[in-house]
Amino acid sequence: SQERSARLRRWYELMMENKEELARIITAENGKPLKEAQGEIVYSASFLEWFAEEARRIYGDVIPASANDRRILVLKQPVGVAAIITPWNFPSAMITRKVGAALAAGCTVVVKPAEDTPLSALALGELANQAGIPAGVYNVVPCSRQQTAAVGEVLCTDPLVSKISFTGSTATGKILLKHAAGTVKRVSMELGGHAPFIVFDSANVDRAVAGALASKYRNSGQTCVCTNRFLVQKGIHDEFVQKFAKAIEKELHVGNGFDAKTTQGPLINEKAVEKVEKHIKDAVSQGASIVTGGKRHSLGKNFFEPTLLSNVTTKMLCTQEETFGPLAPVIRFETEAEAVAIANAANVGLAGYFYSQDPAQIWRVAEQLEVGMVGVNEGIISSVECPFGGVKESGLGREGSKYGIDEYLEIKYVCFGGL
Q1: 158, 86 in Cβ contact below 8 A?
Q2: Where is the Aldehyde dehydrogenase domain (predicted)?
Q3: Is 190 one of the annotated active-site residues of the chain?
């Protein structure tokens, strides 16, 4: 474990030494603003640092036996080869979050990066070599969009693979789960979200607006924990919408990710743009109003204006499925119970956010929200120390934190008899 720890630590140090170059790779292949890409690399590297430290804390157990002539031990052992399938929206961090834990546990990995963003995975491989991680421990299998389904199937069905860890859509996750069932593989799934962001009358509105901006428009709305629907209580609804619109217009700048003042890069592809358009068109046809934005940006291609909709209802597509783009729909609500009911009506539950300054309400709502992660008066909650993952159809297992390494360990019970 000490050697694994040292190699992971060296890999972390190399990432930090090369962070500018790694960030430029992300912006080039994913489009996110360079500042966000730099933030991702620091976040990404932090998982290698964290699991380098956790590698030496894989404790077993000694259990008092009921019979005097026995001793009971519990050992934790690596599950074996782990197949890692990652998305394009965090092309570096989604890899290290899984691989750091896997290598710390003593597993080897086969990484299949998203077809849109293979270069970050390969760059990590180069640094892994430089860090002295032995050949064959960190393996990358880039593949085309056409081959993705076939490669995914092989990784999930091959008996040599003991574990699948996937981050991506719920629909794809269900297909992989079916494949993995054939050989009863261990699975970790971090799937789609539909994050509610509830602003209660008691909230500090300015803070709520700042949190809303950060939570919704990071990576142009293309993160699995991005707010997908805003629920705002009637008493402060108009003030919130007005201030939110002003903040969007003043603080968000659409442009090339390499341009220093850009906060909103392009969407990943044409299909992503079409989905945002479809959601807006559907909402407007049912009576929603465009407060700001609403169309493709004049820069063309995959650029889209940051958009805010009001007069939104729960019948609209944008409040029923994940948009994965720069669209913020606002639903007005009356009571706390109503807000919680709307929030929990989804079949997924990854992140949820709410703003309130009423301590009793904070406890009630934090416990009632059916999500794996809750941000209370906070719009950005991801960090290496915290267990990342969801409930319902948002997935299985947790990543990061002291719990993340357990996903790559088997528990073995050893009984010593005849003593």
Answers
A1: no
A2: 2-414
A3: yes
